[in-house]
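#struct-pred
JK: can someone run the complex with pyridoxal-5'-phosphate? inputs below
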Amino acid sequence: MVPVVDLSRRGKQLGPVFAAIVERISASGSLLLGPETAAFEQEFAAWTGAAAVVAVSSGASALQLSLAALGVGPGDEVIVPAFTAVPTAAAVCAVGAIPVPVDVEPDTANLDPALVAAARTSRTKAVIVVHLYGRPATLPDTDLLVVEDAAQAHGAVTDHSRSAAVAYSFYPTKNLGGIGDGGAVATADQALAERVRRLRAHGMTAMYVHEEISQNFRMSEIEAAWLRLGLGRLTADNRRRRAIATRYRTLAPSLCWQSPHDDHVYHLCVVRSGGRDPFRAALARREIATAVHYPLAITDQPAFSHFTRDRCPVAHTWAAQCVSVPCFPEMSDDEVELVGAALAEQAS
Ligand SMILES: Cc1ncc(COP(=O)(O)O)c(C=O)c1O
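RT: done, structure tokens with the ligand placed:
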């Protein structure tokens, strides 16, 4: 079976180097927020072009800390796309605010910026824009705080000064994937970065002096060292993802793809099919795995449906039709051709 993603291939390539890193870090005695984390923050800032990067424990905590550091809290409303991974909306709840799902664009699956103004109330404080599947979203033209959820979009955000903060995830399957959980907040605002830095470690400003109430959102040194390895390959990996997706799109141009964008980094390569089950079954018969990201819009999620204000029919359609096909840098050319031929067959 051609998998949608296979982390073991990377593990086999990097395993020996990683073993040496673990030995070095455990011998150093510096296990959390040490020199590896500091070096990773600098290197990721250089790679993204962001002025400041703060490494944290996950993408969810990067979103939560961005909102908290921006002063979003109880009673505030935050507009979120109705079609996204649930952690986008959960981060809003984590700071005590209310997520307000707004519909997405039919051609990109990203938040429809034209709907933001109508969803705004006197309590609206911020908007989270998600670059879903790695496809850059259009930021709304607004004076609200904008936080970008780039959990799936390392390399797709080319200017980190257009929003207040950009949240990244290093969940192992992501374009820059960790050896465990990890995340980062990238921002052009040094003061905001300092506040996130404080909030990530119990609000501590000096040894056992706590100026704010927070919790633990630290990254481990082993995670940071692994991410530094991955960062060295990220540009080439993104290029490979783009080449794979371009090949599929060329072989099956009449399938319903996300509208193209030069900076799409194809965390996931997703096609929409009105007959999703037969489409997936046909690929499975050719030994090609597929997945669904995500089967429910936020407005239809049992834990979040009560936040629904306006109906979000486009998000609902994306959830009913999306199919993720294999797309990861370690795929062989033969696997890419096999998937491409099966997609072409479905397109004809
Ligand atoms: C769009 C989006 N936002 C946020 C997250 C949360 O990231 P993490 O799993 O690292 O907490 C994810 C990852 O699942 C995601 O895909």
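RT: quick notes.
The pocket of pyridoxal-5'-phosphate is lined by residues 58-60, 84-85, 87-88, 130, 149, 151-152, 169, 171, 181, 183 (CB under 6 Å).
The mean pLDDT is 97.
JK: thanks, will look after standup
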